[in-house]
Amino acid sequence: MRRPRVRPRRPRGPVEVASACVVGVAVLVLAVRVVVHAAAVLLEAWPVVLALAVLTGVAAAWHTARSIAAGRAAAERLAVLRVTLAELDAGDDRAFEEALRGLLVRDGWGARRVGGRGDQAADVMGEHARLGRLVVQAKHTTVGGKVGVRVMYEVNGTAGPVHRARHAVVVTNGTFTRDARDWGDRHGVHWVDRDRLRRWAENGVALHELLELPFRPSRFGRAA
Question: Which of 13, 32, 62, 80 is spaced 20 to 30 Å from 104 by Cα?
Fold first, then answer.
């Protein structure tokens, strides 16, 4: 059963018309007062509003400038060295380590290959004035191969105590098991899988930007 529509009844007679006019005038007066009050508040707060607008504009401009600068830096790095995943896949263990060393040099690190027998879980070492020392354990594998959590244990056990490194990174052209990724995230062992390696080697993203490595504090308590 459909419910009947309720329609407002038009005022009848002079009394009802007068009452309706009074209500209308009251509503209009109230609306005018609200608008006047809002305008007064805006006039009083205009410095704050202007400051917020300026800050928003500055933040947007800074973000845009930062994005442009990052893109320009990536292009400059690619002009120095770009290694494709296909090239990395085709090489052997030594070629993989040499490629990672070259990518670190491209990103501003003083790097050398140290991999070999008795390397104690460090295939490449890097030194950076603002980031400190970094050790890289390279795991060249077949496409689709997975690196397990045991590698994370080994790198974590030698990076600081043996090599006195501030950062430890495991890099593979394959993938990591979930346990390896989770353990590395919990214990500060960074990992670069195939997707991240593409961004680093092919797209020109610097390793320290990719992994968000913290800068070393200066003697004044701020990042150098």
Answer: 62
Q: What is the dihedral of CA 186, 192, 193, 194, to 10 degrees?
A: 160
Q: What letter represents residue 80's amino acid?
A: V
CB 124 within 8 A of CB 105: no
Could you tell me the end-to-end alpha-carbon distance of the chain, in angstroms, rounded to an integer?
78
pTM of the complete model: 0.68
- Name the residue among 102, 216, 119, 110 with its Cα closest to residue 159: 119
State the residue for tokens 């917020």.
Answer: 52
Which amino acid, residue 10? R
Return the pLDDT at 141.
Answer: 93
Query: Do residues 147 and 139 make contact, with C-beta atoms less than 8 angstroms apart?
Result: yes
**Residue 153: what are its φ and ψ, rounded to 5°?**
-60, -45
pLDDT at 221: 45
Q: Which two tokens stand for residue 75?
A: 């292009």
Q: Which tokens sit at 27?
A: 């509503």
